[in-house]
Specification:
heterodimer; A: seven-stranded mixed β-sheet; four-stranded antiparallel β-sheet; 54% strand; globular; B: mainly beta; 0% helix
Chain lengths: 115, 109
């Protein structure tokens, strides 16, 4: 199994630009999570989906952030317009809800720098 | 809601034993997870406790006391590669996790 796949691994952009992060969950998993990690705030949940449906988006910072999951094998997190304070590592994780322990498996992350 | 506390940093010597503590407050308990995260990498699953007691897995063990809202991760025979951050996490509701701030462990030769 290839694990959770995220792209790009690194993204450098200028303030005001649109940024799209992509995630392919582990095949067969039915829950997908987007996290943001910074030194100051640690690992924070932004949004999670179950069976492609957004369940909890209370962690999404503001309207500049949006996430979609058009099918079971693909999700995007979009920031428009981006700001320097959005600089962080963004992780995607997936799990099998109802499966053994609901363990979440993380992708390698996207390191975003907004200049 | 959930509230999780861990020490920020710990230092130990290669070959030693170290215990990393985690205290939590939760409105409903459905297990506690430990993850390891090396610098610049993704968190990876280490252990899961849902019942009180010690779960042993090789050099790593994890303990849980539900009545005290307390868990610890015990690392034996420390190796340099164990230098990493260790995060405890508790499910919030559904499949959602709340992660603690993490403990950065430095293993010295």
């Amino acid at each position: 199994d290839a694990g959770v796949i995220q792209s790009p691994r690194h993204e450098v952009t200028e303030m005001g630009q649109e940024v799209t992060l992509r995630c392919k969950p582990i095949s067969g998993h039915n829950s997908l999570f987007w996290y943001r990690q910074t030194m100051m705030r640690g690992l924070e949940l932004l949004i999670y989906f179950n069976n492609n449906v957004p369940i909890d988006d209370s962690g999404m910072p503001e309207d500049r952030f949006s996430a979609k999951m058009p099918n079971a094998s693909f999700s995007t997190l979009k920031i428009q317009p981006s700001e320097p304070r959005d600089s962080a590592v963004y992780f995607c994780a997936s799990s099998l809800a109802g499966g053994r322990k609901n363990i979440q498996y993380f992708g390698a992350g996207t390191r975003l720098s907004v200049l | 809601g959930q509230n999780i506390d861990q020490p920020t940093e710990m230092t130990a010597t290669e070959g030693a034993i170290v215990q990393i503590n985690c205290t939590y407050q939760t409105s409903g308990f459905n297990g506690l997870f430990w993850y390891q995260q090396h610098a610049g990498e993704a968190p990876t699953f280490l252990s899961y406790n849902v019942l009180d007691g010690l779960e042993e897995k090789g050099r790593f063990s994890s303990f849980l006391s539900r009545s005290k809202g307390y868990s610890y991760l015990l690392l034996k025979e420390l190796q340099m590669k164990d230098s990493a951050s260790y995060l405890c996490a508790v499910p919030n509701y559904g499949q959602n996790f709340v992660f603690g701030p993490g403990t950065r462990l430095s293993v010295l030769p």
